[in-house]
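Why do we bother with holo predictions? Because pocket geometry can differ from the apo form. Keep that in mind while you read this record for adenosine monophosphate.
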Amino acid sequence: MTFKDLGLSSPLLKAIREQGYETPTPIQEKAIPIILQKKDVLAGAQTGTGKTAGFTLPLLELLSRAKHKTQQHKVKALVLTPTRELASQVEESVRLYGKHLPYKSAVIFGGVKINPQIAALRKGVDIVVATPGRLLDHIAQKTINLQSVDFLILDEADRMLDMGFVNDIKKVVAILPKERQTLLFSATYSEAIKKLSNQFLKSPTLIEVARANTSSEIVKQAVYHVDKTRKRELLTHLIQEGKWQQVLVFTRTKHGANRLSGQLEKDGITAVAIHGNKSQNARTKALADFKKGVVRVLVATDIAARGIDIDQLPHVVNFELPNVSEDYVHRIGRTGRAGNMGEAISLVCVDEDEFLVNIEKLIKKDIPKVWLKGFKPDPSIKAEPINMGGNRGARNKPRGRGRR
Ligand code: AMP
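The structure, written out:
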């Protein structure tokens, strides 16, 4: 299957070639032809599967087919995302894939000045990528007109619900034209997502790509059991001994993220924290420095890390396990992106056993449990000792929990 077979025309095929993509990913293979048939879509796709191109490419194709000559640079497509970072990245994709087409796009999110956004909107844009809160501000101030919207895309809808955006989304959708095509992407299906889908989508086609595509198959997962007080020491050891150059580390709290990045710096490892209390500029700079390799470790909370897209991110570390199991799937989806092998390591202490049990239930898989020589955990923990460099005495135990 090629991108051409999917029905995309030459300006898009050219942009795809320039990106170096050779074949469509499974979600792209499934979603693109259906979207091109103008059907509503409810897609279960995790981040890292190529879902952004999966909706951006057919969206641009449909816009170019319709030509919308009479309504040049009016907002025809609206993409809603949960976070500023994801909004920026989606809009970047729109520009990238649409570079040989005449459409203009804008990204709208809070935490930055509103005036440049107003100016951009005034000049006229075809595609808006926005987070719900700031979009509502523009709607209230009448600085955006959504009456020509033909396409609504809800990206990472489950996360938008988790973040409490449901009413904001409803307010936005209420003012959109009823005649439109709606696409909803979500990593997980819950009752709330089904409800949202029933409300906003018309007889949607369901698309699911094998979960195997991310968490289970291309991400090598391991639990390193360790005493809580020695987690930082173990992390430093893993990074230094393993010569890891680019590591995304998750902590549960903003305070924890700040503290850990400071401690890593003290250990001689360049690190920066990214979380909701940081200004947008600080977050953008931290991410850029991390991408460029100026800092080796990015310490993030779940919400801040949403939407981070770094090609071939090799290592993700859960400094603490998330108490919401779905967050584990989102976190490890940061590595092993688009077919590249990745490694996700969780540093787990005795108190986190219940979180681990729930995560394993969700991913329907036992994660290999080990401890690194020199970092012996609580004797009640059942795990295999290993040496640095992966000389693993433990094998992936088919059954059984970490702790007895
Ligand atoms: P997403 O799931 O949309 O966040 O995409 C994950 C990553 O996959 C991004 O870095 C894309 O640039 C990349 N990507 C998307 N489609 C393809 C493709 N067909 N071939 C190779 N890489 C891709």
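The mean pLDDT is 88.
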